[in-house]
Amino acid sequence: ASQTITVVDVEPPILIPPSTKIIRAATGENLVRGIALGSASAYDNDLVAWITNSAPPEFLLGTNFVLWTASDRSGNTNGCFQMIIVVPAE
Q1: What pLDDT, in 10s, does the model give residues 35-49?
Q2: I need a labelling partner for 53 at 20 to 30 A (CA). Which of 17, 25, 40, 63 fits?
C-alpha cells in the first residue's frame, strides 16, 4: 500500500515596508526625483521569491503611496504601502 501526501502552501508572506519618508522639494519645485525608498523585508514559511514596488520616477507635493508586494514560490502574495510625503520648500 502507498499513500500520497500533498502539501499546499496557502500562507502569504509577511511583508514589512520601509518607513514613511518626508522629503522637502527644492525651491520653486512641485516634485522630487531620485528618492531612496529603503528596503522592504519579507518572511514566509516558504522561500520569498521576490519583492517589488510601484514607485514612480518622481513624486509630487503631498502624500504619495508606494505599493510593495512580496510573492513566494507557491504564488501567494501580500502587499502593503509606504508613504512618501513631499513638502514644499520653506
Answers
A1: 999 999 999 987 778
A2: 25
Q: How many CB atoms lie within 10 A of CB 26?
A: 11
Q: Which of 29, 80, 82 is closest to 58 using CA atoms?
A: 29
Sorting pLDDT into bands at 50, 70 and 90, what band is 80?
very high
Please give the grid coordinates belonging to residue 83.
508613504
Q: Which three cell numbers stand for residue 82?
A: 509606504
- C-beta of residue 12 within 8 angstroms of C-beta of residue 79: no
CA distances from 70 to 5, 6, 46, 51 (A): 27, 24, 12, 4
List the grid coordinates of 69: 508586494
How far apart (Å, rounded) are the C-alpha atoms in residues 83 and 63? 7
